[in-house]
Amino acid sequence: MSCCGHNRATGRFFSLFANSSRKRFEKKGFEESQQFLIEGLKQAGFVGASILEIGSGAGNLHQTLLLNGAASATGIDLAPKMIEQAKQWAHDRQLDSQVEYKQGDFVDLADTVAPATVTVLDKVVCCYPDADSLVHKSLDKTRRVYALTYPRYTRLNRSLSKIMAGIFWLIRFDFRNYVHPPEQVRGWIEAAGFRRTYQNQTRIWLTEVYVKD
Questions:
Q1: CB-hemisphere CA count at 13 Å for 178?
Q2: What is the spatial distance between Cα 38 and Cα 104, in angstroms, rounded to a whole number?
Q3: What is the distance of C-alpha 67 from the center of its chain?
Q4: What CATH number did the domain enclosing 29 receive?
Q5: pLDDT tens for each residue of 139-170
Q6: Pairing verdict, β 50-54 and 142-151
Q7: CA 167 to mean position of chain CA atoms
Q8: Which domain covers residue 46, as residue numbers?
Q9: Which residues pair with residue 206 across a beta bridge?
Q10: Are 169 and 196 in contact (CB under 8 A)?
Q11: CA 52 to CA 141: how far, in whole Å?
Q12: C-alpha distances in angstroms, 142 versus 104, 178, 203?
């Protein structure tokens, strides 16, 4: 499957949830795996840092980091409607001067993205066909802290991924989700000079934070 077709489908798919994302966050706040991400980032340290969030969605995560002491943030997302929501939230929170947004595929945009102290990928590795390129290019942009959440490599997750792939194939929709072995993802990150400082999990998600030695 080409990344182009998949990315267009991904952008359309997640744009469908843009309007509901704000209402959900206002009602329920962060989900458990995102709370783990913030906990791990607090331990690693993000005050005064520049943040790069790939797959930034409606912006809640990096904007919360800004409200708690981060210096600046760049959000990148495939979904145009998510970028619109993030810009609106940033304006409402008086964060316009601290944020920059880019709509598109990070792997294609990487050369135009400045390095950041902290890079965050919340449920992004599982939505991209070329995880190898995504992880390595994002590591190249990371000065100190690399944080991500992706599916646990369980029988349940692998089965659900196959079922979803079958459904999307039947309706001729190019979006797919992927379940990668943690040992593979961890190997890529550690080979770039990072060591894991935090790990937590829910039934579905694995959250890890790495710090560069």
A1: 18
A2: 25
A3: 19
A4: 3.40.50.150
A5: 999 999 999 999 998 888 788 778 777 776 77
A6: unpaired
A7: 24
A8: 3-212
A9: 150, 201
A10: no
A11: 8
A12: 19, 23, 28
Residue-wise pLDDT tens digits, 87-137: 999 999 999 999 999 999 999 999 999 999 999 999 999 888 889 999 999
- Alpha-carbon distance 166 to 80, whole Å? 26
Contact 205/123 with Cβ under 8 angstroms?
yes
Q: At what angle do helices 3-15 and 80-92 cross, to 10 degrees?
A: 50
Task: Report DSSP letters for 161-208, one per residue.
Answer: HHHHHHHHHHTT---------HHHHHHHHHHTTEEEEEEEE-SSEEEE
What is the number of alpha carbons within 13 Å of residue 41 lying toward its C-beta? 32
Cross-strand partners of 198:
209
Phi (first) and psi of residue 126, to 5 degrees: -80, -10
Residue type, 12: R
**How far are the Cα atoms of 30, 134, 156, 189 from residue 184, in angstroms, in the given order?**
28, 13, 19, 9
The total of structural domains in the chain comes to 1
Distance of alpha carbon 198 from alpha carbon 207, whole angstroms: 8
- Written as six digits, the tokens of 60 are 């809640």
**Reported pTM:** 0.87
Q: Helix 32-44 and helix 60-67: axis angle, to 10°?
A: 40
Structure tokens at 64: 């919360």
